[in-house]
Amino acid sequence: MRPTPANLLRVLVPIKRCVDYAVKIRVNPSQTGIDTNVKHSMNPFDEIAVEEALRLRERHKDLIKSIKVLTIGPPKSQETLRTALAMGADEAIHVETPADAPHGEPLGIAKAIAAVIAREKDGVDIVIMGKQAIDGDEGQTGQMVAGLMGWGQATFASSVTVNEGGTLNVNTEIDGGAEEVKVRMPAVITTDLRLNTPRYASLPNIMKAKKKPLTKVTPEELGVDLKPILETIKVTEPPKRVGGGKVENVDELVAKLKEAGIV
């Protein structure tokens, strides 16, 4: 049976603006965090999530109705949304926070995503998001969204298949291999590195992205408090690495290790 417009799937992809993965991270002078006055870009795992949403639509043209991207962050985060729109997403939602607002924590971000889902008139069937952000590396937000919504979840996805019966088959990365799980929609999927390689946005699509809908909303309008509940006391760089030394044989290596108190 072919799906009708009423039961076509709606995909939401939360994305984050992070310090670019190629930038060498430095601690700021006050030691309260990292220096953010550097190049930023979309979190790489979220790029994979956007790409997978687009590929799902390409593979299942009769099943996917729309792809919306969502970000929670300062005004400059709009650039990240435009990148996702240029890749091929249909619409964007920006939960705008002040430029000087502290870094959001997983629970607050998850509550904001859940509140956005609740506001969507046509509903959301699949949330696809990166398994973690490369700045905080907590890897908790996707699971928290699933918990708050009472939805199924498939984390660390390396392949995703949409079934017409309202379920998803997802290969997930586990220690030493992979397992295939079936999850009923609505569901949350978090993406791993092996899932795909994101496409580049073409110049014509970058121009088209400027005309695609972008809705702004505040945390207050969502009824969400993004104030951190944890306080960072101090951030310091790891100790500088020192050069190694050469040994002539195994006995000398063991002696050196004993000298260092390692064995």
From TrEMBL:
Its main location: mitochondrion. PANTHER family: ELECTRON TRANSFER FLAVOPROTEIN BETA-SUBUNIT, ELECTRON TRANSFER FLAVOPROTEIN SUBUNIT BETA. GO terms for biological process: amino acid catabolic process; fatty acid beta-oxidation using acyl-CoA dehydrogenase. The electron transfer flavoprotein serves as a specific electron acceptor for several dehydrogenases, including five acyl-CoA dehydrogenases, glutaryl-CoA and sarcosine dehydrogenase. It transfers the electrons to the main mitochondrial respiratory chain via ETF-ubiquinone oxidoreductase (ETF dehydrogenase). One of its GO terms (cellular component) is mitochondrial matrix. Heterodimer of an alpha and a beta subunit. It is found in: Mitochondrion matrix. The keyword Mitochondrion applies. Belongs to the ETF beta-subunit/FixA family. Binds 1 AMP per subunit. Keywords: Electron transport, Mitochondrion, Transport. Its cofactor is AMP; FAD. It comes from Botryobasidium botryosum (strain FD-172 SS1). This is Probable electron transfer flavoprotein subunit beta. Residues 32-226 form the Electron transfer flavoprotein alpha/beta-subunit N-terminal domain. GO terms for molecular function: electron transfer activity.
